[in-house]
Amino acid sequence: xxxxxxxxxxxxxxxxxxxxxxxxxxxxxxxxxxxxxxxxxxxxxxxxxxxxxxxxxxxxxxxxxxxxxxxxxxxxxxxxxxxxxxxxxxxxxxxxxxxxxxxxxxxxxxxxxxxxxxxxxxxxxxxxxxxxxxxxxxxxxxxxxxxxxxxxxxxxxxxxxxxxxxxxxxxxxxxxxxxxxxxxxxxxxxxxxxxxxxxxxxxxxxxxxxxxxxxxxxxxxxxxxxxxxxxxxxxxxxxxxxxxxxxxxxxxxxxxxxxxxxxxxxxxxxxxxxxxxxxxxxxxxxxx
Length: 288
Prior knowledge:
Elements: E1 21-25, E2 28-35, E3 43-46, H1 58-65, E4 70-73, H2 89-102, E5 108-113, H3 115-126, E6 131-137, H4 150-164, H5 169-172, H6 178-190, H7 204-219, E7 232-237, H8 246-254, E8 259-263, H9 270-273, H10 275-287
Parallel strand pairs: 3-4, 3-5, 5-6, 6-7, 7-8
Antiparallel strand pairs: 1-2, 2-4
């Protein structure tokens, strides 16, 4: 369907240059950025723990936006979006659906990474008619192996990051091999490419609410993923420490006809490390 806002059909060519916009979602301002041609079914990006608009990998976003309308946003209480961050995945999913509807969309594609993948599954299970295609990266199912252990793992690597003056994602998202270390440096460098109109950091209270939601999700009963009937692409590295890679294989087994992509010598950020391979694969999947 057509977007109800009157905007230019041509966006800036790169994610780093596109302006930050805002939409009223039931009285709360949600911020977002969009890039790519303003036609067809948009791809909505759902981000990871502690992440705001500046944490979306520009190579993935721009890769998809070569032919697709791509929208990244801050959910409630994250970055510059208003409101208080909920402490359950179900509430985060309801907020994301409200954001999508506030933009006037009746059908979208979803790309959920890590925490965003939990939210994406919840959206598909509760609002199946809203989603046309689903991409799940670095993520797992409710009750998945090790998901309830994300908090201690994250805190240890945050301390390690502080002691070594590195971003914790250097340790959390990538392997410790020469290949993984190179990929980590390149990824963190890409996140600094946007020079103006940077987003607000994620607050400690929002981070805590997200951790609480992740732990509860890791401890809840498994959901029936066999009801997901839309095309699904599942991807990860083979060495994910945050959401152990076994969860990715589990998702691919439990979602009917899901396609699986596993990258060797790659961790939680496997799709970022292998963006040159993954972005075209994701586009081909969305366009098929």
